[in-house]
């Protein structure tokens, strides 16, 4: 389970059961583990392997979760940003190393050269600390739910803040970029199915199709396509 959680960017955390007992999980609370008739281990009820969408926190939005494509994209962006200080520090260390090699005994005393070497070591150490690993970016799938978390208030607040950041990344970065790609025809859906596939490929849930429609009003074919999909999906819920 821990290996699967690592690949899915799920955080190991503690929850409380109905009796107040503390259990450690690296999965949604609903997840179940069984041993099948073939003596193999299986995990069931993995609907919420990604966190709940912080933009939909109402009582009827329990299963409004973020898509795994969005989680992967966000993790990639965070890892890239974390690596930028390393590149800058490494460049500085390289420059200092070059300078120290160019210093001759006639130009600088031994003490100055030793200080240069110490600076290089400090910068190299800082570069290692700045290295961001994708595996270190994890999310608690049970925040913003009715389940009781057993961690400290600070840990719970930090977990909630992480999920809010992903949800904000969706609305502030991913959605505007997707609408822009539609307007420039970099993404050209032909029907409801290809529109849905394009949304999912970019980590966008179909529930955001109204925002996509609002950004494509000036393009009649996209406006009609989005509205047709909205009407069909709404009718499906009414008829059911």
TrEMBL record:
Domain of life, source organism: Eukaryota
InterPro entries tied to this protein: CLU-central, CLU_dom, CLU_prot
Domain Clu: 1-57
A Gene Ontology term for the protein's cellular component: cytoplasm
CDD domains documented for this protein: CLU-central (cd15466)
Any matching Pfam family: eIF3_p135
Annotated protein name in UniProt: Clustered mitochondria protein
Source organism of this protein record: Trifolium pratense
């Amino acid at each position: 389970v821990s290996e699967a959680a690592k690949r899915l960017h799920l955080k190991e955390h503690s929850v409380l059961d109905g009796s107040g007992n503390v259990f450690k999980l690296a999965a949604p609370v609903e997840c179940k583990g069984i041993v099948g008739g073939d003596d193999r281990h299986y995990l069931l009820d993995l609907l919420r392997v990604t966190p709940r969408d912080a933009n939909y926190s109402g009582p009827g939005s329990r299963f409004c979760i973020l898509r795994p494509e969005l989680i992967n994209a966000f993790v990639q962006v965070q890892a890239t940003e974390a690596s930028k200080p390393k590149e800058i520090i490494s460049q500085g260390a390289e420059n200092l190393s070059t300078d120290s090699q160019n210093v001759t005994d006639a130009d600088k005393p031994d003490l100055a050269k030793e200080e240069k070497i110490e600076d290089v070591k400090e910068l190299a150490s800082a570069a290692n600390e700045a290295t961001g690993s994708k595996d270190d970016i994890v999310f608690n799938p049970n925040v913003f739910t009715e389940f009781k978390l057993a961690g400290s208030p600070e840990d719970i607040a930090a977990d909630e803040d992480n999920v809010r950041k992903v949800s904000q990344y969706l609305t502030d970065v991913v959605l505007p970029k997707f609408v822009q790609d539609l307007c420039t025809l970099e993404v050209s859906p032909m029907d409801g199915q290809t529109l849905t596939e394009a949304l999912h490929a970019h980590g966008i849930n179909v529930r955001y199709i109204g925002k996509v429609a609002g950004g494509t009003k000036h393009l009649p074919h996209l406006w009609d396509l989005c509205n047709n999909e909205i009407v069909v999906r709404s009718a499906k819920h009414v008829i059911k």
